[in-house]
């Protein structure tokens, strides 16, 4: 239930703080006073889109806060916990700010929230029925959603749609396969050849790196051998080789040590150099023995490289990317392999179709039961809305194969007068009849509403007299089960309310501002009298107003 609403700098409201009660509350006032501003502010708090034009002239931003008692809404409490947006126990606080540039921010229980989260929370909190709601009822999808929503079948309908799409996906694949069987077979044959060709190459990226290194080594074997032999000659085998001269020098330094011990450090360095150079000679000779200069092996490597390069050119990839190309071919074959069997795919399609039919038939049965009940409720309501003898029906029109919404179209049908045949609601000529039917439908559907707060924004437009009084009684009865707010211009409706608020506007210091006042006693009689008599209010009008309030009480 809505408990508190705070509005600041919104349209023509500077500051407004309202505390709400249970039951039926009527909002009345002169045309243009801003009665619908309250609804617009609530809509903004619940995630509707806004723009900078909603900010009061001269102000930087508008702010709307709405506090709800959610102690009786366990589904909303679970949703808030799942979204990590829970606040105090049994309370949900929504806040929305909107600046003059059109930028807005939303909050739930003090935590930042997206507009989608505000809307999802709002779906649990209240329903708003606008004065033009009857126009949407002319759409086929709105009629179907009305029945499913009233019967609690929205989830079942979504499940049916999911299975319908799965069935249709298999159906399209099967038809496509049948139509392109020859092309698919040719593609499979080519892919099988390519897979065998690449598998025959037996190639990996690591092999390619090793092959390149080995080829570079073998192709330069002669030069490498020559370099190694040159090193051996220079160090130990040629005339005046380094080792021979170094040995001679070391011997002479060793002989002179007895005359000058300072040569000891030099001798150590020379002996170390002798050892290092000798190790180098051993390493070069070992390298000569190990180096393979086999021309046949080199030829085989060059042939292998040629095969790899040719395959890479054929598949238009770099040599190291051939394994990826092979993997792509295998993946495509797996894909074709899963759908290549038309009979298997047809069997899968048949199972999917049967699953859809099972769920759709179950949905149809539930819709049929709910349609009969809703038809009776709205037909009963019509008898009290100046449509005596009228009849309402929620018709289920079968479809040959069904669609994503089930095995039938939902069509609202009405007979406004006794003996007249039922016709589609879209063909009802009278705007007044359509408005009254819309109200009857909304009241009947609202009885099953899962939200605790229902708001009606001038849904009684186009009616009056006895019918208006009946509409007021309907809303009063609805107020025993839900919190009901109604923006109305009819005194007969307002008189039935448990509470009445008057919306007015005034020019203060050159600025037009809107105000809301809770009416009691004589003030309420005066407002009902104004609604009855217009600008000139007489004692007779006041007496009539008091009688209306007395009758309602």
What does this protein structure show overall?
By secondary structure, this protein is an alpha/beta fold. About 55% of the residues lie in helices and about 20% in strands. The protein has a six-stranded antiparallel β-sheet, with helices on one face. A six-stranded mixed β-sheet has the order 8-12-13-3-14-15. A three-stranded antiparallel β-sheet has the order 9-10-11. Helix 18 crosses helix 19. The chain is elongated. The model has no long low-confidence stretch (mean pLDDT about 85).
Outline the secondary-structure elements:
Blueprint: E1 2-10, E2 13-19, E3 24-29, H1 37-45, E4 61-69, H2 74-82, E5 91-99, E6 104-108, E7 111-113, H3 115-125, E8 126-129, H4 133-136, H5 140-151, H6 154-179, H7 181-201, H8 205-219, H9 221-237, H10 242-256, H11 264-290, H12 295-314, H13 322-339, H14 342-383, E9 391-403, E10 406-415, E11 423-424, H15 431-446, E12 453-457, H16 465-478, E13 483-487, H17 491-494, E14 499-508, E15 511-519, H18 521-533, H19 539-552
Parallel strand pairs: 3-13, 3-14, 8-12, 12-13
Antiparallel strand pairs: 1-2, 1-4, 4-5, 5-6, 6-7, 9-10, 10-11, 14-15
